[in-house]
Amino acid sequence: MFPYILLILVLLWQCVIIGYTFNLAANAADEAARAGAVGDSCEAAAREHIGSAWEVTVNCGGDPLTEATVSLRMPLVAPQLLNIDVPIRAKAAAVNERTED
Fold it and tell me: What percent of the residues of the chain are helix, what percent strand, and what percent coil, each to the nearest 5?
């Protein structure tokens, strides 16, 4: 019976990790879009809000909206151990606030 309980706990923990990864990706995309809208580095803003254990890809651009797409590789059990090749993506956009001098 103990192995089944342990397996259920590991599966539940994996569900928590997946949800947390979606949350991290969405927050990083928001921050990247806001930074890009005022002329700052999108990638730096996104990476600032994601831990170093996560593999991240950031794409930014667009006019009149800055659109940011953040992609994280889904971790298996813990981010430091193993990332499987399943990308979790989030998109966000912000209106450009850059002023012409």
Answer: 45, 30, 30
